[in-house]
Amino acid sequence: AHCMALQRTTGPKALLACGSFQPEAPNFVELLSIDFEAAQPVEAMGQRLPHYFPPTKVRWLADRSNPGTPDLLASSGDYIRIWSTTGELRQLLRHENNPQRFCTPITSLDARGGAGSSADMVTCDVYGVCALWDIEHGVQKQALDLGQPLCDVAFSPEGIVAAVGDQQECLRPEGLVAAVGDHGDCFLFDPRLPQGVSVLGPRKRVAGPARISWGSKRPDLLAVSWQSETGGVLIYGGSGDQRQVAPHTLRSSMGVCADLQWSPAFPEFLCCAGETGRVEVWQFPEVGLMAASAETGPCFCWEPAAGEACTGMVLSHEVRPGQHALIVATAPSADAPEADANSGSLWLAALPSPSKPSGIEGQGGSSSAVGAGGGDAGAAPAAPVAATSAPAAPAAAPAAAAAAPDG
pTM score, two decimals? Predict the structure, then answer.
């Protein structure tokens, strides 16, 4: 899967959306049913949502116009598409403010579910436009031109939006959005003060493409994976004066990080999936960038299979007290023997609970428990629960260890 999103639920079952990547063929988003407690945890639903171009991001949305109804799914690419879980296309939106006036390549989106918010989705594109949307009414609330191609975008836990760009001004601490751009800047702006766009920390010698993660329970830290040769995973201060402190670069050995995410179950965990197939989980039990800079390495590492490259990753909620899981999508490495560009796998693995007491008040679950992986660098979590073969490098699969269907 080129991109994935796991539905937020309170039990062991959830829906997983997987976006394909097929440069020479029509693409799609496939919906899978996940049951973390089942012997066969992955089950196909027979739902493939058509995309002509590869989806760049997928996100679950709460249907606020009909409380109690199933969530909606948003996907980005040439357009923004809003889907029901039955495959019905509810809305088709596009960025109007671009030089071509049609089919703007939309590189990413993010969503929030706060009741009463005037904008519940943010998107960005290759022309540098960052747009905020009211999904309930299907209208664009505002658009900002940040002056450089944008790679990814995220709401802060308080509703701030972050992005990557080049300007530097003051910014209020509440309600922001973050975005990362092709020139190596991490933008931060308050939708209520669009004239005040800031850049997090002094500029580092990095460049896009990039991925951004701002945990729903970690307003103090913002993680960005810069995927150029001079990049790496950088941790930025997300609150107060720490926004202008130089970001911290993780001392990682996994190479280029293909995807990253803060754990929704335990906010002290940051999980990074490298293009080489190596997965690293880092633990930041204390608040603030200075404490994060004291890290000495990942608390554990894992490699799903030799010769596989990670293409996407998602972390689960707390399935049971003290228990959460990781889903990794892989494809054969380019140098792997008999590599098939149209095949791939999904791997499910249990993750240990935190090994250190957390200083993050009111966040996460059993943060004082010692998990199966211990706390030592290099320790591995439990073996994969299942591996599923899939088309479209990889798209998704019907059943564990099933042969990949055509196309």
Answer: 0.84
